[in-house]
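Researcher: Structure prediction, please.
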Amino acid sequence: MTVWSIDARSGERRRGFPTTGAEEVELACRRADALLPRLEEAGPQGRAALLEAMADALDHRVDALVAAADAETALGVGRLTGEVARTSGQLRLFAEVLREGSFLDVRLDAADSVRPDLRRMNIPVGVVGVFSASNFPFAFSVGGGDTASALAAGCPVIVKAHSLHPETSELTLAALREGARTAGLPAEVVQLVHGREAGTALVTHPLVRAVGFTGSIPAGRLLYDLAKSRPEPIPFYGELGSLNPLIVTPGAAARRTEEIAAGLVASATLGAGQFCVKPGLVLAPRDDALVEAMARHFAELGPQVLLGDGIRESFEAGAGEREALPGLRVAASGRTGGDREVTARLLTGHVSALDASELLLEECFGPMTVVLAYDDEDELLHALAATPGNLTATLHSEPEEEKLAARLMAVMRARAGRLVFDAYPTGVAVGWAQQHGGPYPATTEPSTTSVGTAAIFRFLRPVVYQNCPTHLLPEALRDDNPWRLPRRVNGELTLP
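Model: Predicted structure follows.
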């Protein structure tokens, strides 16, 4: 069978790529497992050099990468150029993590009359499978955050390419492999497979020890169940779906009507509404002014091309289902376009609509948001509490509404992994303090993140060496601290 690269704007086939058979997946897993010692021998410094060389290779090939990705996704040259920079930046950030060293979490307890000598550190879990995302062909795909954090941890990676950008995936793989060779490591530290069956085989293969996934709830839940039903269950770090509620208090709605309307519409329709942190549900006071202001901005939006035929069809079906719900109305639509383009939509109604249909509590991927009006604080809190787990929750309020904001924050924190104040959730900064995860269905493992330096901990596990002879100790656990790591010795943090 063949996976075709499709031009997102025209629907024409560009190039075909053969799907990966079961025997090829088997070989890929064995090759990856055999490379675990090489990545461990490289140590943090060697793996840091690997990530930096990969980042350089991506930057050197940016024009070709962007051209292919723009044809396959229609996301635009400017957006995609920035995404390549974000991807290479992620790789370089994890190189910093490796050189800083605290990710190993080294803890030493000297022997005394009660306890033995104990030396604890993190080690790589093993081969990692990564599923590329449709909406981020670079930052959440072959060379994205899952791959960067897994390689940093010392884990070889096998990526399942997304069917909407197979050529971009192959070009990215070539860049990463060039970087690996430059760093003196085997190119096969990253491998690529194509096709749904290959993805299933990857999740169930006994040599694969963890999986990172970004995609839909149905696909993610299917793979999650496979990972957990294995004879030896493995971690499945899935990002599945998020509504990302945005709350506007009465004071904010009255004082910043136009400002909030403009920012909210821009956020909800950024990238044709195909961001995982798009604000899909807005809770605002019963006041036509905010909706009217948003409607003016929606009416100015041009038609938009979505990532692929399946996504476009799902968006049209989902938007139509919501438009037909009792109590909802279309407050505004963007300009119409051709057969392969969609029209942005703004829906509005009362929060009581949430009690009538659970559909409003599900993500609709594409350029649409729903504004529901509340009459009082209790209605607002009840509506917010009804939302499922989310990646983000956003609050726009005024200083004099401190008591209301505090009540809302308590609910927001229970429902989301990132709380945003007087801003918008789109745009996920990559850094040491970021959290990109949340309660199910936003993610399957809410205690972890797929963005930021803490992502490395998904692909590590702790091991304790008890009364280990000095000559057998890993360098990170030796008394002379040859890697100059920050360590906790007998409970006290010591810096190199």
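Model: Residues 36-60 form the longest helix (25 residues).
Researcher: Thanks, that helps.
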